[in-house]
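User: hey, got a sec? need ATP synthase subunit b 1 folded
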Amino acid sequence: MFATAEFWILACLVAFFAILGYFKVHRTLAATLDKRAADIAAELDEARRLREEAQQLLASYQRKQREAMKEAEDIVAQAKVEAEQLAKETRANMEIQVERRTKLAEDKIAQAETQALNDVRATAAEVAVGAARRVIAAKVDAGKDAEFVEKSISELTSKLH
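Assistant: Yep! Here you go:
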């Protein structure tokens, strides 16, 4: 029984485990494994915490992005409203300005017509006075009648103007 190889292998194995037990290797091995398990658990907890923090940051940035997009849309809408209002005001101002210029042009035309009519009347009066003077001068004596003619012509000129 002691001469077989299996016996000595078994004896060596038992002795090996006895030596390991004597030096408390199993406790050291268990402590190392427990420490390793605790480290892994701590890393998992840290990973969960970081993941939750990342999700919170992501949600925060998504919320900020939505708010920024809404604000940009509001700004664009406000700009459109202001542009439409400015266009309305500009059209109204242009219409008023066109009306003023049209009125001014019409007034200038009316004034020019009046001036032209007055000029024509004055010229006609001067021509009539000159013609009357020549006709009367040819028919009247040079004496008293000339004074009468001059007086009449002066009155006629003042009445026509």
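Quick note: The chain has one domain: 23-160. Let me know if you need anything else on ATP synthase subunit b 1.
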